[in-house]
Design goal:
single chain, alpha+beta, 4-stranded antiparallel β-sheet, 4-stranded mixed β-sheet, globular
Length: 273
């Protein structure tokens, strides 16, 4: 994964992650508020609980599988077998700005829309959000592991082997190629994937739980990444990027303190009891 860092340093005009970083420097971080009432907050959080989708366990090829190989970067290789042994729940949508405010009281987003995904959250911000959401709901929400994220993006056991999450046509499922980040970013506009999940390709990147590491060719069971590191993984591409960067195997990384205009999160829970 260190190759990604060199790519960022020496290809600023080409790399979409660098584009996001460069654009972030143009924005001053500030807090926005929708001034939600207590009743609105309660309903918004209840809707979050109702929008969790069950992912059944299964086995898949993670990384540069056959349908990804033509466009795959070195850090997506080698493709390797991964088995997920336990069911889990994942959010139908990316966490929205109104959902983030219902939990945290304010939003970090610059370009504001209640149903737009939250952005400019660091990995550490996500941990604080999850902690508070768990206190409010009594549940145990977390970020997905990288393997859980990719398995769900591919459609889980219902996968049809698409290049993007839900289609071989990126424009059917992904908000991409936008130069203006104030464009319409409402979640759920595009076609869902086989599990009924929206925006797993495009819209905003999504933080994962794992520290980043190069892939191994060895089969793995419920991988969680290395025990420590310097960079966290995020997945899915975003509205800034073209088709190559919103494929289900594309991966990137940055320090857990970094924030970008095009990076948000999606909820995962082991159960919803």
């Amino acid at each position: 994964m260190r190759k990604i860092q060199l790519f960022l340093l020496f290809a600023l005009l080409l790399c979409p992650v660098a584009k996001a970083q460069r654009s972030e420097k143009l924005l001053d971080l500030h807090e926005t508020k929708f001034n939600l009432t207590d009743e609105e907050k309660k309903q918004i959080i209840e809707n979050m609980l109702n929008n969790m989708v069950l992912v059944e366990p299964g086995t898949f090829i993670m990384g540069a599988s056959e349908e990804q190989m033509a466009d795959a970067f070195d850090w997506e290789k080698p493709g390797h077998q991964v088995t997920i042994t336990k069911p889990y729940y994942i959010g139908k949508y990316e966490v929205t700005q109104e959902e983030y405010e219902a939990v945290m009281g304010t939003s970090t987003a610059k370009h504001v829309g209640r149903k737009w995904p939250i952005n400019r959250v660091t990995w550490l911000d996500c941990q604080n959000f999850l902690k508070k959401l768990n206190e409010i709901t009594g549940k145990h929400f977390r970020l997905p592991t990288e393997a859980e994220w990719e398995f769900a993006a591919r459609g889980g056991t219902k996968s049809k082997g698409y290049k993007y999450s839900g289609s071989n046509d990126a424009n059917e499922v992904a908000i991409i190629d936008l130069d203006d980040p104030s464009s319409e970013l409402t979640v759920g506009q595009k076609k869902p994937n086989e599990l009924g999940l929206y925006d797993m390709s495009g819209n905003v990147y999504e933080w994962c739980q794992d520290w980043s590491a190069n892939y191994s060719a060895d089969p793995q069971v419920d991988p969680t990444g290395p025990e420590n590191g310097t960079h966290k993984v995020y997945r899915g591409g975003s509205f800034y990027y073209g088709e190559k960067y919103v494929r289900v195997s594309y991966r990137s990384e940055f320090a857990p303190t970094n924030r970008f205009i095009n990076v948000g999160l999606r909820l995962v829970a082991d159960d919803m009891k």
